[in-house]
């Protein structure tokens, strides 16, 4: 097996520990150990975490699906009951790059959250996935404590949670450490928040106001609690109108309580101000790793996190930490990875801009380039995607659908949904051990999203069951 293919296989098969029981999970979801739906041995995850050099189950000698047979099977699934809508798609052999299926491959349409695949690739290609984001407090010597955002929008209002991604860095922990660093004879203190790391308008002008009102997005700042969702216990619903100020308010309340125990007074609500050069850092908390945050973004399709990570990557690449900088980086990443440019337009990092467009050929080419990358961080991206029937936005899909159940536990893919669009792009290992990348898109499906999702799920399950010769 070549080193390139080995990297791709490791990325796809090295599932999170929580998903290392896929065969049992599939049996449970299908009502028992039905041999007809249980994934073949080559599709099952290993019994432990794989190390480089131990994968030998997949090779370039595994049978490749026959394009003619594949086209007949996929075309039969990519349709709505009674007609309507328009489905397009591309399937590629991940080892050779050969296109095995092409239907409307160059038709540009809104990719929805499938654009996050490009966002993830840009972030992983630019930032060190082991790096962490730091939220700091600085004492200015003027009676002001400055809370500086370092790009972590998954802050928790409580104590830091070492094993978590969301809430890994807690503002209550930061407040306690700050109080401990202060002289008991000092004070009173005011609190200011420095959110100057990000540049430009916090709201992308190409976002529909209805999406903002619905909580799909919020003004993007370099610090936020729980991706700006108002209910910290949920990852849905309304978002804060000013996420940075809300984070600062949570920190101020926790600091006032912690400082009072030491006889130090903290005054009223926070204001905005930039940390002066003379200020001294007194406390900090660090986020989960960039790699963990990228996985969180892909698995849950977190729009706010996607926007923040893309701005950070733009800054690291020498561009502005702004929406324009982020979209320029995404376009440059696509070009660098050899994604054909015709029809590709990038209006944001989350996939909600009205200016976004991409073709199935472009998304499939991106996925193939990622899997073939010699950069470990990029080649590992397939292993960060949701698993069909088991995790994230794919948790409730495939397994409940008898016609798609063969894809459960086997397909790793990114979902995408808008009112008239559904998309599914990712990877699958066939029943005979061939690694494929694919992009399936449906448009013109207003009011029929569940049926369109079933169609692309069934098509992905066809790939898992191949054969196809």
Automatic annotation (TrEMBL):
Q: Which UniProt keywords apply?
A: Carboxypeptidase, Hydrolase, Protease, Signal
A Pfam family annotated for this chain is Peptidase_S13
Mention one GO molecular function: serine-type D-Ala-D-Ala carboxypeptidase activity
Keyword Signal annotated:
yes
Q: Tell me the superkingdom of the source.
A: Bacteria
Q: Which residues form the signal peptide?
A: 1-19
Q: Name one GO biological process term.
A: peptidoglycan metabolic process
- Its top-level enzyme class, in one word, is hydrolase
Q: What InterPro entries does this protein's entry cite?
A: Beta-lactam/transpept-like, Peptidase_S13
What does the record give as EC number? 3.4.16.4
**Family, similarity comment:** Belongs to the peptidase S13 family.
The record, for NCBIfam families, names: PBP4
**Protein name per its UniProtKB record:** D-alanyl-D-alanine carboxypeptidase/D-alanyl-D-alanine-endopeptidase
